[in-house]
## 1
Amino acid sequence: MTIDARGCVVCPGLVDIHAHLRYPGFVEKETIASGTSAAVRGGFTTVCAMANGEPPTDSPARVEQLNAMVQSEGRCRVAVVGAITRNLAGSGPADWSALKHEGCTALSDDGNPVMSPELMADALRASERLGVPVIAHEETRDGTDAGAPNPCWTCAGEAAMVERDIELVRRYGGRLHIAHVSCDRSVELIGAAQAAGLAVTAEAAPHHLDLSLCEDAPSLGLPPAHGCRKVNPPLRARRDVEAVRAGLSDGIIDSVATDHAPHALSEKLGGMGPAAFGFTGFELALPLLLRLVRVGQLSLVQAIARLTCGPARTLGLDAGSLAVGRRADICVFDPLSEWTPTRDTLVSKSKNSPFHGQKLQGRVRFTIQAGEVHSFAGDHALRAARA
Ligand SMILES: [Zn+2]
């Protein structure tokens, strides 16, 4: 088989270590079939499913159920993240070693913080023993930042939780990964922890690298408090965006993770109050990172690394490399191709994105997953591919 990749970049299949596939429980938002199709359209060959389905992935039986659905309708590899606490309730621990033995690649209550330091310390100790990282959702419900639309997640709160968890690693050991870093102070704390030799890694979401709360609102043609801009952690100030970008380029943050969070459009209408949190992410991650390449914030090699080998290394996944003998998971993208996300151009069942109508550059042409070629190159290249 020949693939016409003229003008394209060929890189490892992208790896997303933070996604919400909404199975089980929310098939009106996304299914395993629609979510993994969107992932493949965005160049991803491995994605990690967070545990907050309904019911949550907090037992081996639930992991098995999710794996069975992926086996039957998944279009890319799905690694499973098990819950830290039973029912994500923050009180009783899940059976971590059973989750690990069922194949979970990480432990996380993502969507909820683990407020109990004792429980978090236990989870971190288990993470060291079992060899699976704890992914921390660093939110605390302590008030409101001036101007922040979401009442519950302040920069001070995020930094306090990051600081607490780094201190727990320092005292008790463990392998900590900080999800969706959004504030300048968090980046500083994580950098200092790494410099001290602690096993702490971090990810950033494409929207936190691209948008700030107020400065970008006019270019989006939307009031800053429109529900389509509501996400957790919230969009921050420009200085936070700059700090997260710098952290990504320095390697303090070595993964970009989408936090793909599909919701029906009806759930995103109205103001900040009633709207659901989150954006669809798989199909926009690569073009949004390429924006940072164009403005000189990242090299192309760095951008690809943050979407491939960085996240694969963080969770110990066999992915993100084109080395001989590794899996032939490959992404072929045209870095110059322009397109505009709309309800019609996105594959995910949910279309919730603040980037609708913005011109993006960079489009995936082929995603090769376990030997299967998914072509998005149109008729001409398809014929070439079959020649
Ligand atoms: Zn989260």
## 2
Amino acid sequence: MEKKDLYEILGVSKTATQDEIKSAFRKLAKEYHPDMHKNEQDKKKAEEKFKEIASAYKILSDPEQRERYDRYGWDALKTPAGSGYSEGFDFDSIFNFDMGDIFSDFSDIFGDFLGFESQKGRARGKKRKGSDIRYDIEIDFFEAVFGAKKVIEIKRKESCINCNGSGLKPGSKMKVCSTCGGHGKVRQSQGFFTIVTTCPKCHGQGEFPEQICPECKGEGVQNKKRKIEIKIPAGIENESYIKLENEGNEGSSGYKGDLYVVIHIKEHPFFKRQGDDVIINLPVTIGQAVLGDEIEVPTIYGLEKIKIPNGIQNGEIITLKNKGFQKPYSSSKGAMHLVVNIEIPKNPNSKLKELFNQVKNVETENDYFSVKEFNKIKENFKKGEKNG
Ligand SMILES: [Zn+2]
Ligand SMILES: [Zn+2]
């Protein structure tokens, strides 16, 4: 990456105040936030730009680092080996932190204007979303055809009734952490180094309950069993899921995860499904295949009259429109395909045998396209043998 001027990246002057820098950063960060870009390529570009902006802001928003950058330029941000120059940056590492780190580091800025959460939940007092729940359910083939209502029972975390989700014993208060003075972080100086770590006493919260709620042990949430009705739409596909928003686990401060119900459809011995289409095997007799016929066939919606055209071949497909699965959340339907399977009688009755004998005697190669082709090849083969 080229070493661009940090002030140029943010579009501010060298004399810009901290507020001007912050507001320039907010504006640019909003513009280049990857979530604002749908197209994959735009997203990638925006992410690069976003990292650049975040890096520039990270340095310029810190008065100490800004001063060093002003004085020494990019050289100030390098760490000369063994120099004890501890607070400098390694150039590459500046631009190579991951997006999650950026959000986490700047969550106090992002939190209020973009509405997304710190992905690592590190920021103090951040509302944490509860986790999602997956529930697998098996339904019958025809429930998938027509849709169904199901009641499922799930176990999930819900806000504790006793403490209203605070984790505090009712009547007691939060106490400011004396170890970190409410900052959630503690600084330790070791020679040149200043190490900032999460406060071990309050785990970064800056405060902790005087007395914890005995019902939820201070967690603020409790396990609850809940019955939930789900509506399975007609035509739902196997292995697809239905998302029920806010029906997952409740996190701290009432943010709920989602519930994902994954649908498994039992196979049907007769009807096979392919996307929105239904496929069945259609056994056809020799007589029907030669002369054609009109018959009734089962579809997923009941019996249906169809025509078998005369001269139909083995493996040919008869298609019935609108006899397949309903496309979910739509009124159109797939098709039903009947794959012709001409059956040859293995033990024909005596009358049939007699008739087939007559057939065999009167049929010629002109009645059979493939037989005629085969005979032609055979003839050529014989001639070839003679010549050779
Ligand atoms: Zn409680
Ligand atoms: Zn603390």
